Amino acid sequence: MLNTLLGPTTRLVAGTASWNDFLAYLNEGSITSAIIETLNIVAVTLIAGGIIGLAIGVILWGTRKGSLFENALVYRVLDLIINLIRPIPFIIFLAAAQPLTIAIIGTSIGTTAVLCPMIVVCGVASSRLVEQNLLSVDPGMIEAARAMGVSRWNIITSVLIPEALAPLILSYAFLFISVLDMSAMAGYIGGGGLGNFAIAYGYQKFNPYVTWCAVVIMIVLVQIVQLLANAFATHLLRRTH
């Protein structure tokens, strides 16, 4: 009778029911589905946002004063837009972007809906990372290529990006962590994946085993991606030096 009255609180203290529920989620494949959904969300966001960010980052680098496509107006407009979006916490941006998400997708709830704001934030974040990494390339190499008559587009594709490739890989690995973090926060609007799984089956049902399982899985994912990025970047640096 007392257990019935206390409900979730007793389950949390005792732990037995929570552990049994956790094992049931394992048997149902709920955790596996959440992992796959998270990887899909992160992959789509990184590919789409990463490509957009790469393009904007190259434009930012190219339109700076003294660069290949110097254009103060374009640079200032892009710089202003990025500086306006970057400081906004993602959970607040999710709410602020609801009208745009509804206009594009037709809903502001669910996995598909969360991709829109995630891609925007990822594109903005990656564009600044790309710009900073491109600025680290030796200007002398760019000037030498221009003196040899290499076209501006070929300078970007054959000199600029290859020279900055190793730090770009590390930057995108760092971006992976941010996108994974965003996918977890997206769980608050039913965005799916590990974030939604931890909230729906862990936090709301007073089951700490589910919450900590989601935490451990995210840590493992981050470690794997970081190790791969470090190895790839090191290989590129050895090959180019």
How are the SSEs placed, and which strands pair?
Elements: H1 2-6, H2 8-14, H3 16-28, H4 30-62, H5 72-85, H6 90-96, H7 98-105, H8 111-135, H9 139-147, H10 152-185, H11 193-203, H12 208-240
Helix pairs in contact: 4-5, 4-8, 4-10, 4-11, 7-8, 8-10, 9-10, 10-12, 11-12
Structure description:
It is a single chain. This protein has 241 residues and is an all-alpha fold. Helices cover 83% and strands 0% of the residues. The chain contains twelve helices and no strands. α10 packs antiparallel against α12. The protein is elongated, with a radius of gyration of 22 Å. The N and C termini lie far apart (73 Å). Residues 1-15 have low confidence and may be disordered.
Distance between the termini: 73 Å
Largest sheet entry = none
**Unreliable spans:** 1-15
Oligomeric state of shown chains: single chain
Number of E strands: 0
Helix content: over 70%
Summed up, the helix count is 12
The gyration radius over C-alpha positions equals 22 Å
**Which structural class do the helices and strands define?**
mainly alpha
- N-to-C series of helices and strands: HHHHHHHHHHHH
Q: How big a fraction of the residues is strand?
A: under 5%
User: What characteristic shape results from the CA principal axes?
Assistant: elongated
**pLDDT averaged residue by residue:** 83
Subcellular location: Cell membrane
Main location: membrane
Keywords: Cell membrane, Membrane, Transmembrane, Transmembrane helix, Transport
Organism: Fannyhessea vaginae PB189-T1-4
What does this entry show, briefly?
83% of the residues lie in helices and 0% in strands.
